[in-house]
Design brief:
Blueprint lengths: L15 H14 L7 E5 L5 H7 L4 E6 L2 H10 L5 E5 L12 E7 L7 H14 E12 L1 H6 L14 H9 L4 E9 L2 E5 L4 H6 L14 E7 L10 E4 L4 H54 L3 H37 L1 H17 L1
Parallel strand pairs: 1-2, 1-4, 2-3, 4-5
Antiparallel strand pairs: 5-8, 6-7, 6-8, 7-9
Protein backbone atom coordinates (compact mmCIF):
# COMPACT_ATOMS: atom_id res chain seq x y z
CA UNK A 1 0.00 0.00 0.00
CA UNK A 2 1.10 3.55 -0.70
CA UNK A 3 1.07 6.17 2.02
CA UNK A 4 -1.73 8.69 1.35
CA UNK A 5 -2.11 10.20 4.83
CA UNK A 6 -5.38 8.34 5.56
CA UNK A 7 -3.78 5.42 7.41
CA UNK A 8 -0.39 4.87 9.02
CA UNK A 9 1.97 2.45 7.22
CA UNK A 10 5.23 1.46 8.98
CA UNK A 11 8.38 2.22 6.96
CA UNK A 12 6.32 4.13 4.37
CA UNK A 13 5.16 7.07 6.45
CA UNK A 14 7.66 9.98 6.37
CA UNK A 15 6.45 11.32 9.74
CA UNK A 16 8.38 9.61 12.57
CA UNK A 17 6.21 11.37 15.17
CA UNK A 18 3.11 9.77 13.66
CA UNK A 19 4.83 6.39 13.93
CA UNK A 20 5.52 6.89 17.64
CA UNK A 21 1.92 7.97 18.27
CA UNK A 22 0.41 4.90 16.58
CA UNK A 23 2.78 2.32 18.06
CA UNK A 24 2.32 3.71 21.56
CA UNK A 25 -1.40 2.98 21.56
CA UNK A 26 -0.96 -0.64 20.53
CA UNK A 27 1.94 -1.20 22.91
CA UNK A 28 -0.19 0.12 25.76
CA UNK A 29 -2.95 -2.47 25.27
CA UNK A 30 -0.74 -5.53 24.77
CA UNK A 31 -0.98 -6.34 28.48
CA UNK A 32 -4.79 -6.04 28.42
CA UNK A 33 -4.94 -8.50 25.51
CA UNK A 34 -3.05 -11.34 27.23
CA UNK A 35 -4.97 -14.59 26.80
CA UNK A 36 -8.02 -12.88 25.26
CA UNK A 37 -9.91 -12.95 21.99
CA UNK A 38 -9.33 -9.51 20.45
CA UNK A 39 -10.89 -7.59 17.56
CA UNK A 40 -8.76 -4.84 16.00
CA UNK A 41 -11.40 -2.79 14.16
CA UNK A 42 -9.91 -0.89 11.21
CA UNK A 43 -6.60 -2.73 11.43
CA UNK A 44 -5.15 -1.08 8.31
CA UNK A 45 -1.72 -2.38 7.39
CA UNK A 46 -1.92 -4.93 10.23
CA UNK A 47 1.13 -3.98 12.32
CA UNK A 48 -0.98 -3.35 15.45
CA UNK A 49 -2.90 -6.60 15.21
CA UNK A 50 0.39 -8.48 14.87
CA UNK A 51 1.79 -6.71 17.93
CA UNK A 52 -1.24 -7.65 20.05
CA UNK A 53 -1.13 -11.24 18.78
CA UNK A 54 2.15 -11.71 20.64
CA UNK A 55 0.15 -11.88 23.89
CA UNK A 56 -3.49 -12.51 22.94
CA UNK A 57 -5.09 -15.92 22.57
CA UNK A 58 -6.62 -14.83 19.27
CA UNK A 59 -6.66 -11.61 17.22
CA UNK A 60 -8.88 -10.71 14.28
CA UNK A 61 -7.96 -7.60 12.28
CA UNK A 62 -10.87 -6.10 10.36
CA UNK A 63 -10.58 -3.50 7.61
CA UNK A 64 -12.82 -2.25 4.81
CA UNK A 65 -9.94 -2.07 2.29
CA UNK A 66 -9.44 -5.44 0.51
CA UNK A 67 -5.87 -4.51 -0.46
CA UNK A 68 -4.96 -3.81 3.16
CA UNK A 69 -6.48 -7.13 4.26
CA UNK A 70 -4.70 -9.12 1.54
CA UNK A 71 -1.30 -7.58 2.27
CA UNK A 72 -1.69 -8.01 6.04
CA UNK A 73 -2.48 -11.71 5.57
CA UNK A 74 0.79 -12.15 3.68
CA UNK A 75 2.94 -9.89 5.84
CA UNK A 76 1.87 -11.10 9.30
CA UNK A 77 1.29 -14.88 9.21
CA UNK A 78 0.56 -16.15 12.74
CA UNK A 79 -1.59 -19.10 13.83
CA UNK A 80 -3.58 -16.91 16.23
CA UNK A 81 -3.99 -13.94 13.86
CA UNK A 82 -6.52 -13.50 11.05
CA UNK A 83 -7.45 -10.57 8.84
CA UNK A 84 -10.94 -10.19 7.37
CA UNK A 85 -12.69 -7.60 5.26
CA UNK A 86 -15.67 -5.82 6.72
CA UNK A 87 -17.27 -2.52 7.70
CA UNK A 88 -17.39 -1.11 11.22
CA UNK A 89 -21.09 -0.38 10.67
CA UNK A 90 -21.85 -4.11 10.40
CA UNK A 91 -19.23 -6.31 12.04
CA UNK A 92 -19.23 -9.78 10.43
CA UNK A 93 -19.06 -11.69 13.75
CA UNK A 94 -21.55 -13.46 16.02
CA UNK A 95 -22.74 -11.99 19.29
CA UNK A 96 -20.38 -12.06 22.30
CA UNK A 97 -17.43 -13.10 20.12
CA UNK A 98 -14.61 -11.04 21.70
CA UNK A 99 -13.20 -10.21 25.12
CA UNK A 100 -11.53 -7.03 23.90
CA UNK A 101 -12.20 -4.64 20.99
CA UNK A 102 -9.58 -2.05 20.06
CA UNK A 103 -10.12 0.67 17.48
CA UNK A 104 -7.55 3.42 17.15
CA UNK A 105 -8.08 6.60 15.08
CA UNK A 106 -11.11 5.09 13.31
CA UNK A 107 -14.34 6.62 14.53
CA UNK A 108 -13.50 10.12 13.28
CA UNK A 109 -13.22 8.70 9.74
CA UNK A 110 -16.93 7.81 9.46
CA UNK A 111 -20.07 9.96 9.46
CA UNK A 112 -22.18 10.35 12.66
CA UNK A 113 -24.73 7.68 11.69
CA UNK A 114 -21.93 5.17 11.15
CA UNK A 115 -20.38 6.14 14.49
CA UNK A 116 -23.63 5.23 16.23
CA UNK A 117 -23.87 1.94 14.33
CA UNK A 118 -20.24 1.13 15.17
CA UNK A 119 -20.86 1.38 18.91
CA UNK A 120 -24.00 -0.74 18.64
CA UNK A 121 -21.99 -3.41 16.83
CA UNK A 122 -19.15 -3.26 19.36
CA UNK A 123 -21.59 -3.84 22.22
CA UNK A 124 -23.06 -6.77 20.32
CA UNK A 125 -19.78 -8.61 19.65
CA UNK A 126 -18.31 -7.98 23.13
CA UNK A 127 -18.77 -10.66 25.76
CA UNK A 128 -20.29 -9.63 29.11
CA UNK A 129 -17.63 -7.71 31.02
CA UNK A 130 -15.58 -7.21 27.84
CA UNK A 131 -13.51 -4.09 27.15
CA UNK A 132 -13.48 -1.52 24.39
CA UNK A 133 -10.29 0.56 23.94
CA UNK A 134 -10.88 3.35 21.44
CA UNK A 135 -8.87 6.45 20.52
CA UNK A 136 -9.73 9.60 18.59
CA UNK A 137 -8.19 13.09 18.32
CA UNK A 138 -9.27 15.81 20.72
CA UNK A 139 -10.75 18.32 18.27
CA UNK A 140 -9.74 21.34 20.36
CA UNK A 141 -6.05 20.37 20.42
CA UNK A 142 -5.82 18.51 17.11
CA UNK A 143 -7.78 20.86 14.83
CA UNK A 144 -9.06 24.05 16.48
CA UNK A 145 -5.92 25.29 18.20
CA UNK A 146 -3.50 24.80 15.26
CA UNK A 147 -6.14 25.75 12.66
CA UNK A 148 -5.72 22.37 10.95
CA UNK A 149 -8.21 20.33 8.94
CA UNK A 150 -7.67 16.63 8.20
CA UNK A 151 -9.39 15.87 4.90
CA UNK A 152 -10.06 12.26 5.95
CA UNK A 153 -11.92 13.13 9.16
CA UNK A 154 -15.72 13.32 8.88
CA UNK A 155 -16.54 14.05 12.52
CA UNK A 156 -14.12 14.77 15.34
CA UNK A 157 -15.00 14.93 19.04
CA UNK A 158 -14.29 17.41 21.77
CA UNK A 159 -13.23 15.68 25.00
CA UNK A 160 -16.61 15.99 26.75
CA UNK A 161 -18.46 14.99 23.58
CA UNK A 162 -16.40 11.80 23.34
CA UNK A 163 -16.96 10.97 27.00
CA UNK A 164 -20.72 11.55 26.70
CA UNK A 165 -20.89 9.54 23.48
CA UNK A 166 -19.21 6.49 25.06
CA UNK A 167 -21.26 6.73 28.28
CA UNK A 168 -24.39 6.18 26.21
CA UNK A 169 -23.18 2.65 25.54
CA UNK A 170 -20.96 1.82 28.53
CA UNK A 171 -21.55 2.49 32.21
CA UNK A 172 -17.81 2.70 32.93
CA UNK A 173 -15.63 5.04 30.81
CA UNK A 174 -12.13 6.21 31.72
CA UNK A 175 -10.17 8.56 29.48
CA UNK A 176 -6.39 8.54 29.15
CA UNK A 177 -4.48 11.41 27.53
CA UNK A 178 -1.80 10.77 24.92
CA UNK A 179 0.71 13.52 24.28
CA UNK A 180 4.43 14.09 23.61
CA UNK A 181 6.74 15.41 26.34
CA UNK A 182 10.08 14.48 24.73
CA UNK A 183 8.66 11.01 25.27
CA UNK A 184 5.30 9.58 24.27
CA UNK A 185 2.90 9.08 27.17
CA UNK A 186 -0.44 7.32 27.52
CA UNK A 187 -1.75 8.14 30.97
CA UNK A 188 -4.45 9.57 33.20
CA UNK A 189 -1.82 11.28 35.35
CA UNK A 190 -2.54 9.05 38.36
CA UNK A 191 -0.22 6.12 37.52
CA UNK A 192 2.43 5.59 40.18
CA UNK A 193 5.29 5.02 37.74
CA UNK A 194 4.48 8.13 35.74
CA UNK A 195 4.04 10.28 38.84
CA UNK A 196 7.58 9.26 39.82
CA UNK A 197 8.92 9.99 36.33
CA UNK A 198 6.97 13.23 35.92
CA UNK A 199 6.46 14.61 39.44
CA UNK A 200 3.84 17.29 40.03
CA UNK A 201 3.98 19.83 42.89
CA UNK A 202 2.62 18.38 46.13
CA UNK A 203 2.33 14.89 44.67
CA UNK A 204 -1.13 15.52 43.16
CA UNK A 205 -2.24 13.92 39.89
CA UNK A 206 -0.42 15.22 36.83
CA UNK A 207 -2.35 17.66 34.63
CA UNK A 208 -1.99 16.00 31.24
CA UNK A 209 -3.93 17.07 28.16
CA UNK A 210 -3.21 14.95 25.11
CA UNK A 211 -3.88 15.45 21.41
CA UNK A 212 -5.43 11.98 21.33
CA UNK A 213 -7.92 10.45 23.75
CA UNK A 214 -7.89 6.70 24.50
CA UNK A 215 -11.00 5.39 26.25
CA UNK A 216 -11.40 2.04 28.02
CA UNK A 217 -15.07 1.10 28.26
CA UNK A 218 -17.01 -1.72 29.92
CA UNK A 219 -20.06 -2.40 32.04
CA UNK A 220 -18.03 -3.53 35.05
CA UNK A 221 -15.74 -1.49 37.35
CA UNK A 222 -12.16 -0.87 36.13
CA UNK A 223 -10.67 0.53 39.32
CA UNK A 224 -7.57 -1.71 39.30
CA UNK A 225 -6.71 -1.25 35.63
CA UNK A 226 -3.33 0.25 34.68
CA UNK A 227 -3.07 1.22 31.02
CA UNK A 228 -0.50 3.99 31.39
CA UNK A 229 2.54 3.69 29.14
CA UNK A 230 5.59 5.81 28.43
CA UNK A 231 7.73 5.34 25.30
CA UNK A 232 11.03 7.20 25.21
CA UNK A 233 12.16 8.82 21.99
CA UNK A 234 15.22 6.59 21.70
CA UNK A 235 15.76 7.33 18.00
CA UNK A 236 15.93 11.10 18.65
CA UNK A 237 12.97 11.77 16.35
CA UNK A 238 12.33 15.06 18.14
CA UNK A 239 15.96 16.20 17.82
CA UNK A 240 16.01 15.33 14.13
CA UNK A 241 12.85 17.34 13.64
CA UNK A 242 14.42 20.32 15.41
CA UNK A 243 17.54 19.98 13.25
CA UNK A 244 15.33 19.86 10.17
CA UNK A 245 13.58 23.07 11.27
CA UNK A 246 16.94 24.77 11.80
CA UNK A 247 18.12 23.61 8.37
CA UNK A 248 14.94 24.96 6.80
CA UNK A 249 15.46 28.21 8.65
CA UNK A 250 18.97 28.50 7.18
CA UNK A 251 17.53 27.70 3.78
CA UNK A 252 14.95 30.45 4.22
CA UNK A 253 17.69 32.91 5.14
CA UNK A 254 19.57 32.02 1.94
CA UNK A 255 16.40 32.40 -0.10
CA UNK A 256 15.72 35.76 1.56
CA UNK A 257 19.16 36.94 0.43
CA UNK A 258 18.43 35.74 -3.09
CA UNK A 259 15.01 37.42 -3.00
CA UNK A 260 16.64 40.69 -1.92
CA UNK A 261 18.98 40.53 -4.93
CA UNK A 262 16.09 39.70 -7.26
CA UNK A 263 14.02 42.59 -5.92
CA UNK A 264 16.96 44.95 -6.37
CA UNK A 265 17.35 43.76 -9.97
CA UNK A 266 13.63 44.20 -10.56
CA UNK A 267 13.76 47.80 -9.35
CA UNK A 268 16.81 48.46 -11.55
CA UNK A 269 15.02 46.96 -14.54
CA UNK A 270 11.97 49.11 -13.92
CA UNK A 271 14.06 52.29 -13.66
CA UNK A 272 15.96 51.38 -16.83
CA UNK A 273 12.74 50.71 -18.74
CA UNK A 274 11.37 54.09 -17.67
CA UNK A 275 14.57 55.83 -18.76
CA UNK A 276 14.52 54.04 -22.12
CA UNK A 277 10.89 54.96 -22.65
CA UNK A 278 11.76 58.63 -22.03
CA UNK A 279 14.71 58.38 -24.41
CA UNK A 280 12.54 56.74 -27.03
CA UNK A 281 9.90 59.45 -26.72
CA UNK A 282 12.54 62.15 -27.06
CA UNK A 283 14.02 60.47 -30.13
CA UNK A 284 10.63 60.11 -31.75
CA UNK A 285 9.92 63.82 -31.20
CA UNK A 286 13.33 64.69 -32.64
CA UNK A 287 12.66 62.50 -35.65
CA UNK A 288 9.27 64.14 -36.27
CA UNK A 289 10.72 67.64 -35.93
CA UNK A 290 13.82 67.37 -38.08
CA UNK A 291 13.12 64.47 -40.47
CA UNK A 292 16.83 64.51 -41.15
CA UNK A 293 19.30 61.71 -40.94
CA UNK A 294 16.30 59.42 -41.11
CA UNK A 295 18.08 56.15 -41.75
CA UNK A 296 20.63 56.71 -39.02
CA UNK A 297 17.90 57.61 -36.53
CA UNK A 298 15.80 54.63 -37.58
CA UNK A 299 18.77 52.36 -36.97
CA UNK A 300 19.35 53.87 -33.57
CA UNK A 301 15.64 53.63 -32.80
CA UNK A 302 15.62 49.94 -33.67
CA UNK A 303 18.53 49.40 -31.34
CA UNK A 304 16.76 51.26 -28.55
CA UNK A 305 13.61 49.18 -29.11
CA UNK A 306 15.64 45.99 -28.98
CA UNK A 307 17.24 47.16 -25.75
CA UNK A 308 13.83 48.11 -24.42
CA UNK A 309 12.46 44.66 -25.29
CA UNK A 310 15.35 43.05 -23.44
CA UNK A 311 14.65 45.08 -20.33
CA UNK A 312 10.94 44.50 -20.64
CA UNK A 313 11.59 40.75 -20.68
CA UNK A 314 13.74 41.16 -17.61
CA UNK A 315 11.00 43.21 -15.97
CA UNK A 316 8.47 40.48 -16.77
CA UNK A 317 10.83 37.91 -15.28
CA UNK A 318 11.12 40.17 -12.26
CA UNK A 319 7.34 40.27 -11.91
CA UNK A 320 7.21 36.50 -12.17
CA UNK A 321 9.80 36.20 -9.41
CA UNK A 322 7.85 38.69 -7.30
CA UNK A 323 4.69 36.56 -7.72
CA UNK A 324 6.67 33.45 -6.77
CA UNK A 325 7.98 35.28 -3.70
CA UNK A 326 4.45 36.29 -2.68
CA UNK A 327 3.32 32.69 -3.11
CA UNK A 328 6.15 31.42 -0.90
CA UNK A 329 5.34 34.01 1.76
CA UNK A 330 1.72 32.94 1.71
CA UNK A 331 2.36 29.24 2.36
CA UNK A 332 1.72 27.69 5.78
CA UNK A 333 5.24 26.24 5.81
CA UNK A 334 6.82 29.70 5.32
CA UNK A 335 4.70 31.23 8.08
CA UNK A 336 5.55 28.36 10.38
CA UNK A 337 9.27 28.67 9.69
CA UNK A 338 9.12 32.45 10.21
CA UNK A 339 7.53 31.76 13.61
CA UNK A 340 10.27 29.28 14.46
CA UNK A 341 12.88 31.84 13.33
CA UNK A 342 11.39 34.51 15.60
CA UNK A 343 11.27 32.06 18.50
CA UNK A 344 14.90 31.15 17.87
CA UNK A 345 15.84 34.83 17.81
CA UNK A 346 14.08 35.40 21.13
CA UNK A 347 15.74 32.38 22.70
CA UNK A 348 19.09 33.61 21.42
CA UNK A 349 18.71 36.78 23.48
Amino acid sequence: MDFTGERFIPDADPDSELEMEHLLRYQAVVGLAAGKAVLDAASGEGYGSALIAGQAREVVGLDVDPQAVAQAQVKYPRPNLAFVRGSVERLPFPDARFDLVVSFETIEHVHPEAQEAFLVEIKRVLRPGGLLVMSTPDRRLYSDRPGYRNQFHLREFYRQEFDDFLHRWFSEVRLWEQTAVLAYVLATGREKTLRQALPAPGGEALELRGKYMVAVCSDVPQSDMELGYLALDRENHYQRKVERVVALQDEIEDKNKHIFIVLRDIEYCQRTVEELELRLAAREEELAATKTSGEALRSELAGIKAELATWQRRAEEGERLRAELNHIRGTRGFRFLQLVYRLKARLGR
